[in-house]
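Dataset card, provenance and construction

Sequences and ligand SMILES were collected as paired inputs. For each pair, a complete structure of the chain with the small molecule in place was predicted and serialized as structure tokens. The example below shows a pair involving flavin-adenine dinucleotide. Curators did not alter the output after generation; any descriptive sentences attached to a record were derived from the structure itself.
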Amino acid sequence: MKVVVIGAGYAGTIAANRLVKKADADVTVVNPRPGFVERVRLHEHIAGSGSAVTPLTEMLDPRIRLVVGTVDKIGDGTLLLADGTSLPFDRAIYAAGGAPTAPSGTHVVGTLETAEEAHRALAALSDGAAVTVVGGGLTGIETAAEVAEARPALRVRLLSEGEVGASLGPGARARVRRELDRLGVAVERGRYDGAGDADLVLWAVATQVSDLAARSGLEVDDAGRMVVDEFLRSVSDPRIVAVGDGAAVPGARLSCQTALPQGAHGADNLARELAGKQAKAFSMGYTGQNVSIGRRSAVIQAARRDDTPTRIQFGGRSAALVKEQVCRMAKGAAKTARYAWLPAPR
Ligand SMILES: Cc1cc2nc3c(=O)[nH]c(=O)nc-3n(C[C@H](O)[C@H](O)[C@H](O)COP(=O)(O)OP(=O)(O)OC[C@H]3O[C@@H](n4cnc5c(N)ncnc54)[C@H](O)[C@@H]3O)c2cc1C
């Protein structure tokens, strides 16, 4: 069976590696670049405090064929690539993930290429220059804190329309505010309406996903995510399994905590199909959220399996160690394909 995986992020990489381990399938991965990008480290990449790229040859099982290219359209059993070539498939795993865009004049945090531009722009700023980070979600908090810690002589502002850290519980939210204060980050509520006096604007609203499924005429939700059944199969074409940020799975939060189990489960279902077994419905529960605050601190928020925050939260150096371990574990899981997760609450 020819299986083509579209995208080698967390979801696509674990899916491809798990499938070749569990089944005798001919697996090809298509990705626009030869590197695996740890998106969860792109704020480190921007600030120059860490690196986010590992060669895919080190991440993918040697039995997997890697095609460096971009899928332009998903057709009837065929992928059309931007270079004009095509790849036939019996089954496809759609893992094209996030594709954040931003107003002109700003730098998107969430993709490698734009993070590299942002890194160069940040490095060129003189002390005293002003940086605005737009977005009060976890990505915005991490980016503002990382920049403020790496370049304490810059003036860093975090601009958010809604409450900063709204997905956290009140204790963790207050802790984040104290940590941002400690690093000298000015927090402002409001909508972005131009750079104003900022010398650099970093766009940390990372909710948009690839429009490939929509462009290909497959059913998508309002945000462009591929609509799937309980087995993660496209409702338009059951030969396609969708996983990660680009899959419309009810109750799923955009995170590698979601992308990894979905990628693993999608591969497991294809392996079951090859073995003549029934597919299983996808089910997962959450454990919490981790927000890095520079390299020496973090905030950890525990959650119930339905992803609502509990009263348990902590911060400081021990939290930074936990957060670092979580990032390493996520990359390691994508590479080894070993991953276990909790089921959804009843
Ligand atoms: C700065 C930052 C910090 C974050 N921190 C956390 C965190 O702490 N914890 C957490 O759980 N989540 C975090 N996230 C979110 C997390 O990174 C994403 O949810 C996760 O990367 C989703 O994985 P994915 O495999 O679905 O998609 P992605 O990681 O986006 O991978 C998709 C891959 O598909 C490729 N692709 C796209 N289009 C095509 C195409 N047409 N053809 C071929 N390939 C294509 C892309 O180039 C990419 O390689 C963070 C995100 C950012 C930006």
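Derived descriptions for this record:
The two ends are 35 Å apart (CA to CA).
The chain has a mean pLDDT of 96.
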